[in-house]
From TrEMBL:
Its EC number is 3.-.-.-. PANTHER family: PHOSPHOGLYCOLATE PHOSPHATASE (PTHR43434). Gene3D superfamilies: HAD superfamily/HAD-like (3.40.50.1000). Keywords: Hydrolase. Pfam families: Hydrolase. GO terms for molecular function: hydrolase activity. It is an enzyme of class 3 (hydrolase). InterPro entries: HAD-like_hydrolase_sf (IPR050155), HAD-like_sf (IPR036412), HAD_sf (IPR023214). This is HAD family hydrolase.
Length: 210
C-alpha cells in the first residue's frame, strides 16, 4: 500500500504530468531562434527535465546567460497550447485518493501551471499550489516546501513526504526534513546518473505494491 504520511507534497512537471515531445521541440526551436543558438534534442531534453540538476548551472556551462534564456523561454510558451499538449501520467491518479493535506510545489510558473491544472481537471487534488519564484526560492532550497507546509497548516512533528522526478525535489524534501520519493520517468541511461531517495520507483504503482 501507499506509505502512510500525515501530508503529501508533489512536483508537477515530469512527476504527475508531461508534455508531448513535439511541443518541447517547437519551443526550443523558437527559443534558439531568439538567442541565435540552436538546441539539440539532447540539450532540450536535459533542460526540460532538469536531468543535470540546476538548469541555470547547465546553461552557464553551455555559455548561455540564464536570465536571457528564461526570458526567451517564457515568451515562447503559450499557456493554452501547453495545456492542450500536456498529459497526465496514469499512475498519478493515486493522488486523488490520498488522505490528509496534499500540496503541489513546482518550478512551473503560475501562468503555465494554472491552465494545465485546469485543463486536466486536477485542481481539487491539491489544498495548496506553490509555484517557485525568485521570492519563494527554488528547489532544492527548502523555502518553497516550507511555504507549502505553512499553507497546509502542518503541525509540528507531522510526518510528510515530497515526491518528484528530479534530484532538486529529493534535495528540497531532505532539506525540509521530509522523506523523498524519486519517480524516474526518463530512465537512468538517459539521465546519466541515479538519483537517490527514501523510495526510488519508476511508477507510483510500485508504492501500492510494497
Amino acid at each position: 500500500m501507499v506509505p502512510a504520511y500525515d501530508f503529501w507534497l508533489l512536483d508537477l512537471d515530469g512527476t504527475l504530468i508531461d508534455v508531448e515531445w513535439a511541443y518541447t521541440r517547437e519551443v526550443f526551436d523558437a527559443v534558439g531562434d531568439r538567442l541565435g543558438r540552436p538546441f539539440s534534442d539532447r540539450e532540450a531534453e536535459v533542460l526540460w527535465h532538469g536531468l543535470s540538476g540546476s538548469r541555470d548551472r547547465q546553461l552557464e556551462a553551455w555559455g548561455i546567460e540564464p536570465t536571457a534564456f528564461w526570458k526567451a523561454f517564457h515568451a515562447e510558451e503559450d499557456p493554452l497550447v501547453r495545456a492542450e499538449q500536456t498529459y497526465l501520467h496514469p499512475d498519478a491518479a493515486f493522488v486523488a485518493d490520498l488522505d490528509g493535506p496534499v500540496g503541489l510545489v513546482t518550478h512551473c510558473q503560475r501562468f503555465l501551471a494554472e491552465p494545465v491544472i485546469d485543463g486536466l481537471d486536477i485542481g481539487d487534488w491539491f489544498d495548496t499550489v506553490v509555484c517557485c519564484t525568485e521570492e519563494t526560492g527554488w528547489k532544492p532550497d527548502p523555502a518553497p516546501v516550507e511555504s507549502a507546509m505553512a499553507d497546509l497548516g502542518v503541525a509540528d512533528g507531522s510526518r510528510g513526504v515530497l515526491a518528484g522526478d528530479g534530484s532538486n525535489d529529493v534535495g528540497a524534501a531532505w532539506n525540509a526534513g521530509l522523506d523523498a520519493i524519486h519517480v524516474e520517468r526518463v530512465g537512468h541511461d538517459r539521465r546519466g546518473r541515479c538519483v537517490l531517495g527514501d523510495y526510488r520507483v519508476e511508477s507510483f504503482d510500485e508504492l501500492a505494491a510494497d
